[in-house]
Predict the structure.
Amino acid sequence: MRRLVLALLPILACAPAGAKDTGRIFVSNEKTNNIIVIDPNTYKVVGDVKVSRRPRDMHFDAAHEKLYIACGDDDVIDILDVATLRVVGKLKTGPSPEAFAMDEKRRRIYVSQEEGSSLAIIDIEQNTIVREVPTGAEPEGVLISEDGKIVYVTSEEGDLLHAIDADTGAVSRDVVVGSRPRRLAATPDGKDLWVTAELAGQVDIVDRGKFVVTDRIGFLPPGMRKADVTPVGLAMTKDGKTAYVTLGHAAHVAVVDVPTRKVVAYILVGKRAWGITLSADEKTLYVANGLGDDITIIDTKTRKAKVSVPAGRVPYGIAVDD
Amino acid sequence: MVSRSMTKVAPSVLLLALLAGAAAAQDQPPPQQQVKIGFVEIENDPRYEPLRAYERLVLKRRERPITGAQVGIDEAAALARVLHTDFVLDRIVAKSADDAATYVRAALEAGTHFFLLDAPAEAYRPMAAAVRGRDALVFNVSEPDDSLRRELCAAEFVHLYPSRAQLTDGLVQFVVSRKWRDLLVLEGPAPGDAASAAAFMCSAQKFGARIVAAQHFKPGTDPRDREQNDPALLSAVNHDFDAAFVADEAFDFARTVPYHLARPRPVMGSIDLEPVAWHWTWERNGGPQLNSRFERRSGGRHMEGPDFAAWLAVKMIVQSAMRTRSVAFASQRDFILGDSSFDGYKGLAVSVRPWDHQLRQAIQLAAPYEVVASAPIEGFLHRTNELDTLGDDEPESPCHLNK
């Protein structure tokens, strides 16, 4: 810790230890059961925190004081103190938590439980599972509507997108999407949901009002085979103009112009790229290469990889403290 | 290229229209329908007797694959709501092959169209006669016999279990990719051993490997038969070899081959490196999730090839209802046998070959604790689908169900 603070001093001259917006990069590693912390300027590993087994999806609270980490093999969400890099709490979940979304107003977490075929609604303060909602098998991507009333969840095995009423915990609507739906993004206008369909090799666009698939976007980076195009991760800019999609075994990130729904560029990354995160200023894109044991850091302006940084084994997700 | 992308577009447009239509009709949920799936097995099927050493030691317990089908039914639970359809498994234990055919005839009359057949090769001829020209699809979930795909060639069958040719092609692709071109064959006395050795030798010819010797072994401990029951003497041939292939359904001889050859060479076939439809250590494409659903359902058993085929059969039936938004048998059958592809959790999407109704699928080359490789091995190319480098491709197949 001390070394980290010293290293940051020249850049953030007035920043006290543990300040927000450090830009530090947190990577969860499924097989080494740790979170590594990377300095955004030197790309050196400045922290390595042992957490519960199989850490996957991660989210900061609004103040960026705590980092919540879903740990699939211990059925918990670890709470990491961002300043001290210590695990300060654990929230119990059902079997194999994978991805989640946080509603800070309601102090709730909605987490997909891969092996439980359910979505757990967790009360953060009480550390209790308020409700478990049955979903299709292998639920994954979780997204909360802007008003907090609807939770969207994909079922990988069921090829379904569920809309769940956050208050009653009832599935209100289902829509069949492309094969093996993984993760979700909402357009800022509130109209559409983008869903990656890994085996269909496409992104499905779901109209949130009608709850039907209205369009599909396919991908094929030059020189790649269609069978290797396995879209998983998804990030969208706040202006709703650009989306970035990781293409898994095709080792590229697709850049999509959202209004025209056209792929405008492909960026080469590492092996089995899944996890993807945009920096707050949207100038930098971080991609976790699951089978390359590294992450790729991309300049969104030039659309080129700046550097690849070794992570732990099977990096899943990236969270940036900015 | 153009015509390929056209065929891709057309079904998805159709699907969008179907989905939109389904949503419009969502206000009044239609009544719940039922799709019955018969799981037909035969009493005292020798393939499920435990494999024993010459004494009472059990080497391998072999379990029926019904649990695989049950996992498929479990997975359909969420879809039951969306599709307003329940999928129901009906297990039938027949006394004999003829009894199985009689049952299927009666079930057809009663409105069941889908059957999973878990039976040895001799059950297929009476079954083919029972379903010929009828509204039935019979999924072969456990029998690799090539003649079912070649000579019998029945339009109502869908072979989800790999053929012997697919299995040995996968294995030989691997050995050739490692440049192990000189191979020794050790063949046992069972008819299945002969079929397996023959398939292996065809695969070797297909992919340019050489058989340096094909030896027949005779299981036992009689010293007068030592030339035929001692792996060291059987493998003391004039040519060096890179690997030994053992065909031994009974397994008691195969287990004595590793570490007992005249030369230090890897062993494959019935032991050590086995070509399989599914292995419990498969770590990619959702394998761990499927394996753990299976292990939970079976009380801790590892998922094997027939379990995989039974699971996939149910999944294909469910998918056909989901993607066509219909439980009309004709449209489900056309979907399954058509250009559709399915998520087989093995990478390249699986689909049914129109000429012999064999499932195109990857073959896993499994060591006891690791899938060493998944065939098609990189570099074995095909003009349309690399999965067709495994098993009988259209020009070689004597079965032409699509013509």
